[in-house]
Amino acid sequence: MSPFAAQGMTPVATPFFFYMLSGLAIIGGLLVITRRNAVYSALALIVTLLAVSGLYLMLYAPFVAGVQIIVYAGGIMVLFLFVIMLVNLERTVKERQFNRMWPVGLLAACALLALFLSVYEKGKGLFERSAYLNENFNTQNTQTIGVMLYGEAHRIGPYTFAFEIASLLLLVAILGAVIMAKKRI
Amino acid sequence: MSALTSYLGSTAGAPGTAGFAVLGWAVTPGEANNQLWALIYVLIIFAGVSVAVIAMNWIERKALAHFQVRLGPMRVGPHGLLQPIADAVKLLIKEDIIPAEADKFVFWIAPVIGLLAAFTVYTVVPFGPSQAVSDMNIGILFMLGVSSLGVLGIVMAGWASNSHYPLIGALRSSAQMVSYEVAMGLAVISAILMTSLNTDGTGYLSMIEIVQEQQRQGVWFIFKFFPLGLIAFVIFAVAMVAETNRAPFDLPEAESELTAGFHTEYSGLRWSLFMLAEYAAMIAVSSIAVTLWLGGWLRPFPNWLIGPVWPHEPVWDFIFALFPGLTFLGLGAIAVRGTVRMPKHPYFRIQTIGLGAFAAVLAGIGVLLLGIAIGANASGNANWLRASEGLSNVYWFVLKVAIFMYLYIWYRATWPRYRFDQLMKVGWKVLLPISLGVLIVTAMVGVIVS
Q: I need a surface site. Which of A151, B396, B426, B429 has the fewest CB within 10 A?
């Protein structure tokens, strides 16, 4: 814990918070896929998202944690609930599932598990420690993210291109949604 | 909460002097990593906000009544001063009804979520440079994020009631909050952009640093790049009324159409939790506006009116430190006037005595605050001076927030309710483009100036 001690930070009960938040995230995730009622699934997903945001805080990434709460828990999940409430829930609860997709689901789950295991095995070697992470990365977390995404004075950041491509993709998705939803443009 | 927030304190004080530093109001408990004092601050703020909600309840009823040329509550206590307490007792002893077809768990947890979201925000509200529970370096993000969770409580309440009007209220509420949050966020960003116009070129998300940056730049952000700061502030002021579901944007609880909207099925204590959450959220968003645009705890002209007024004594700081005490003395004088004007009939004797006692309490607080300010100035003791300065900081912050609370009542008395399509039109077609434009122009002016 040397980099934090240098800043005079003494994290309190770290293992407790880690296990509590991870447990909440896992239980929430299980509830999302096991509840028949879609509103309960959405509420469980909110719990998971908040727990993950707490884990970001423990990783000294407060900016990502704040954005996670604003965008996912406060924005997207409210829209989810909005849509779910408009759907006739009683019918979907009573209706029997007729499609048999579980082999595909199992395959996807196995692939994801393999990915997680390989990341766990390879560990740190996969991600080289960025030069942008100096000893002030806790207090200057937001600035660091800004520099990495947009670059400094006369130099583009390492992720500028990927970030701009992602925003272009989002723009295309927004236009697609508008065109599909509107009868006459 | 205190343990978690201690992770987020941006800078830490010297460990050995941490306890003392908090006692002397030098740093926030979060910065000093002192959980006990953080807990005490949390309790003080919780009590203070609850008292403010009670006071707001009374003032709103009286002010609305006076706007409509009525007297308002006059029976319970002198001038209805004990009416909020009577209401609270009534709500506490009312039967607690859960509709038979309601979803019990969600029905139970919805008001709790609303209340938690409204009160958690106060962790980072800066009542002064050290008068806050903690100073997070993502302060404003934290505030916006947690206050946006409040809508979940409303949506869950509307759905769990399993009834038509609450469901419509909840749907309206979620649509309204999601739409207005966009304009609100863009207005906030243009204020945050202004914090970066310094020699460093780095801005701040920390609530305390935002206020201190206004002092360093020598201007409240509402007046910066006139009229850009003012426009952003007005957009925020409109969006915050919509965010808190207050008139003229109170469609989720429109009485004439939806009986009581999302809390139609709620009664007694649970209903009062919703009311408490609504008023706490109103105070919280007002304090965001005060922090970002109105200089937070800063007194008027902190850079200009400094040093001695007259050749040596008194200094301006001392003059402004007298304001809290003088305000309470003024309130006491109003209460004395009310006491003198009470009818001289024996029926009114108890009420007259009660109002007189209330006046004495207000005047006593005023004398105490004046005594602290004058004593600190006379003795020159550093700790006393810091305490006096702290009281003065809290006073200016609360005064600015109180102006917003009065504006909320004024809006409610003045404007009729919007129709839902008008509401959406204002949000998406007026506020959003203007706030985007203001953001872009602010950025351009900032680049040109710096």
A: B429
